[in-house]
């Protein structure tokens, strides 16, 4: 049995028939390296936007079930065309939609999670020497309802298929060339990483480095499937390999620096210092489906028996959050609410910071030397985040990038001899 | 249990979102009459052409399997949008593709025939008070391969569903207002028929009155399902009801006059008068999938021991037919082949001509009075066809239409009180 490689191509990679022919060449290139190949594709280019507009022309509130029926047609087109392009280039190929494969999901429309993937038909086709082209983004419930997986759905389909097939690797072809130590648009000397761990990738992705959806990373971590992010348009490039810490060759203390401008900070002042007050507040926010990122409760002001509670949320949730606070006013007995939307969250991420003291201190000292005030701090095993003024964000990222040795001239070591894949 | 009405709307009826909203109104109108309603729709407008062009951009010879995968996406879009439009107008509705229904076909791509239709899920939805919107044109094999039904596929889907559901009636909504005694573009005083039998409809349809595909009529006849052809854009119109002769109210000897310009005539001269010669010729043509319409073998010329064999085929098959004749030249020993493409087949059709002598003679006499030479004659139980010069076709149709009492002022009787449906 040959090693299986799963390749995933997004909408921009299959946006027109010429691009689809290019994708066919990338698939055949992989097959000629001696692998069995399974390809996952998204809908062509702007198909999803066009279909969504049709639905909105019909009604402002289309039902979720019918949206899934509508949107799932997009991948039906791209898998058929890619299979034709492969056949036209002399490569035996067959397309399969989620129903034909058996990509079983929860009974939830527009954002279902995959429960199970049948592999028998795929393996049969692979044994016949075929390339199997599978529709991403879509699934099916056990009573044949069509579902879609929501944002990052095709990436998740590809990684989940790789896991179910025990694939050697899942290659995510995209319009970026890999994962960088920070956003190259902010720091021009950002370096492309050869490797990054699942954990680091999730922290960087949720911190704004949107190369691969966190759900896809999580799925890869579950199966311990290596995922390579690479460029559709530069097939020779190695890209970045995302894998388990245990398989990594090299641990630098800090792998990347991220900034996130999408949040705002809410400070609730002089909350009664009673047991259960924080629970009431965050239960109320959770009931409205508001995700909280950082939370700080200041030391209680003993003389007043009150606390200040500060937290950050996504900017789009501000109206819902203020509604919750209004409703809880009598219970929490707070004096004031301050909202600060001129903030940025700056994070350093690295699996190597575990057990290396001094990383956090070095970050704080760097910001202090720049005269940047830290408004909140949050830490996890592999990440340290500081909330700062938005105006200081880029300067902070640039300097931290240099201080932690991530500028491209500093990390030539990670660009050494690459395996020929 | 309520009576079930199956409604079918073609591509022009759902060409844009405004038209889809109109279709929703026509569906709700039927539901408000107290019926359970199942709706079958085709792909929107030119979708099939657009998808076919994409495939041709990829390769001049796309595989049939992948073409079916590609084309079947078209109905996925229209069923979802129509279900949304119904919901937006307050009508509970659900879309189903062929896989979800279980429209089982042969394992043949691009022109599969329906073998079986499961009705349990449809009935469950109807029992819940929902309108069920089903994708036409597509099917699925018992191992989940996607198939399409070929030309007239959506009509066939609708009629077959009506049969399987034992529906009260199948309404085919289209851009014509019904079935006419002859082509109104040729004879302005052509009358719309209130009723026509399956047999008559098939003879008229294959004679050029392309309102409903013969396969759909055949399917309706098998289940004895009444089919009403009616206008999408004039919902108040009764249209034409196609039904079994046994259920018809009124039998005129001639129901319609058709002309067909799509054929040409081949005369094979001086074929050896041996047993099996005609069989060889028509076996050879059948092997190339060439449909023969009329056949005449002239009286053998005793002194030469030869026959002339004349037959008509579709113009598009001429190259294949000439190839067959070339190959059989030594076996048939014919002297010459004449091809005549300036012909028209004029037919009169009527279930009522059975057992009424003189109809054929009246047709021949009418043509003779016009000075029109008859090149070939063919008859069936309910049809008499004459091959004439193309230039005489319109004159022949007009005069026959008048002679057999079909001009609109003559058949006011069929436009009497119509049932309120």
Question: Key features?
Answer:
alpha/beta; 34% helix; 421 residues; Carbamate kinase; 4-stranded antiparallel β-sheet; Alpha-Beta Plaits; 8-stranded mixed β-sheet
Describe, in plain words, how this protein is organized in 3D.
The structure is a homodimer of 421-residue chains. Chain A is of the alpha/beta class. Chain A is built from 14 helices and 20 strands. An 8-stranded mixed β-sheet of chain A has the order 3-6-2-1-9-11-12-10, sandwiched between helices. The first copy, chain A, has a 4-stranded antiparallel β-sheet with strand order 13-18-20-19. A 4-stranded antiparallel β-sheet of chain A has the order 15-16-14-17, covered by helices on one side. In chain A, strand 19 (376-380) and strand 20 (383-389) form a beta hairpin. In chain A, helix 1 (17-32) packs across helix 4, helix 7 runs parallel beside helix 9 (214-223) and helix 8 (198-206) packs antiparallel against helix 9 (214-223). The A-B interface holds A 17, 20-21, 51, 54-55, 57-59, 61-63, 65-67, 69-70, 72-74, 76-77, 79-81, 83-85, 87-88, 94-95, 97, 99-100, 144-146 and B 17, 20-21, 51, 54-55, 57-59, 61-63, 65-67, 69-70, 72-74, 76-77, 79-81, 83-85, 87-88, 94-95, 97, 99-100, 144-146.
